[in-house]
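thought: fold this chain, then report.
action: predict
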Amino acid sequence: MSVDDKRRIIVVDDNPAIHEDFNRILCGDQPGEDLGGLEQELFGIVPKEIERPGDYELLHASQGEEAVEIIRQKAIEGCPVEVAFVDMRMPPGWDGMETIKRIWDIDPEVRAIICTAYTDHSHEELIRELGVTDKLLILKKPMDVIEVAQLASAMTTMWRLRKRELRHMQKLRGYASEKSAEVRDIKERLEEERRLHTQFEAEVSRYKLRLSQKDQQWQLLFHAIQAPLAVLSPEGLMVQVNRAFQRLCRADQLDVDGRSWDQVIATDPPLGVYLKQIELDKKPRSETIRIVDASTDLLVNLIPVLDAEDGLHSILTIFVASSVADIGELSV
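observation:
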């Protein structure tokens, strides 16, 4: 197992013998012959065989100040300490409570276990100074070997689960931030599209107004012309006629809408003969035709109106009377 995979624990105690016993319990080191009595005093009866995970890296400090520096350095190296076993009394330096406060100033995720045989600080005082947290446990001396092993395993596991949770939360925050950026981008695009749409609608409204004004002007001009005018579709159907044409054929606009020329007014020759030729060559032409009912010869100008692609859009027919008298007759 690599060093990076090992569970990193620091033992903070001013008694060197305690460090040796933690080495034996967590790392499998054999104690020296002179530690047997102390082992009995601190841990009670020690079983001959102890189940050990064998995946711990043990760090040692005899004073709180030293422990804080070790934890600080490990954090800088990217190898953070997971659990700290801290003795309560370590004269002449900080006591266990002050040491844990300083450790959490550096790394608030370190799990701390206070080891004490005394009542230097009440439980209420510990809560007041360190807060209510699942990162702190109190282990009474003399310590049980199995209890130490289980605490080391449980607290390092909690630390790793917490780190995994923090990494997962960080990923979620990154994902949420990314999605929020996408949402903001979509929102900005929608706002821009809405702005452009509003601008477009305003332009369309202005265009419709101008178009309506031009159409009114066209209608006034179209009906003011004394010569009979008719606008035909490429198929020869009536689209619009002016008042002079309405008088000529004795019909109003509603009567002629969508009807063919021959249905509205009979001419000789039929105007359809010329319309087919206009549709083919798209060139203006002038023809003399006779209005059958009036027995009047009129000159008609056929003018093709082309669209943007030079297709035939409509045909404007303009009747020109052969004499001033004829014009007067048509205007009656």
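thought: worth noting. The chain has two domains: 3-171, 225-331.
final: tokens above.
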